Fold this sequence. Notes:
The protein is mostly helical.
Amino acid sequence: xxxxxxxxxxxxxxxxxxxxxxxxxxxxxxxxxTADTQMYYAALTKPPLSPPPVIFPIVWTILYILMGIASYxxxxxxxxxxxxxxxxxxxxxxxxxxxxxxxxxxxxxMLFLAFxxxxxxxxxxxxxxxxxxxxxxxxxxxxxxxxxxxxxxxYLNLATWLLNR
Length: 165
């Protein structure tokens, strides 16, 4: 009986690690695909309240971990439940938008379009947080820092576009 309990705990731990790794890998891939665009970003005129570039990977790493934990908590409520599948579908869409935004902003240098990607990302993340909250309060709350950061990123994106057009 003790062995089966340990097996279940190990399986849960491995599943949690996978859920945390997914947003970290997606963020890492988009960062890799835009790594050679740092000179472009450095040359842009930045708006007031712009953080130093070193802040972004730190904040995003924390946010990705929170996203992974939140999605795992929702998944644990039962993937067979329609509301869980629906919430995780919205979460997946948010991950897609999270991946697309840096490509549009940095790689393709389409700052105004990137702003609209962020607006959609902000909306989807808000809906996801609400859906997560209805399933597991902690999961919804864990997405609030992401939602606030996207709000701030929207300001930075729009202001950067306005200052550099």
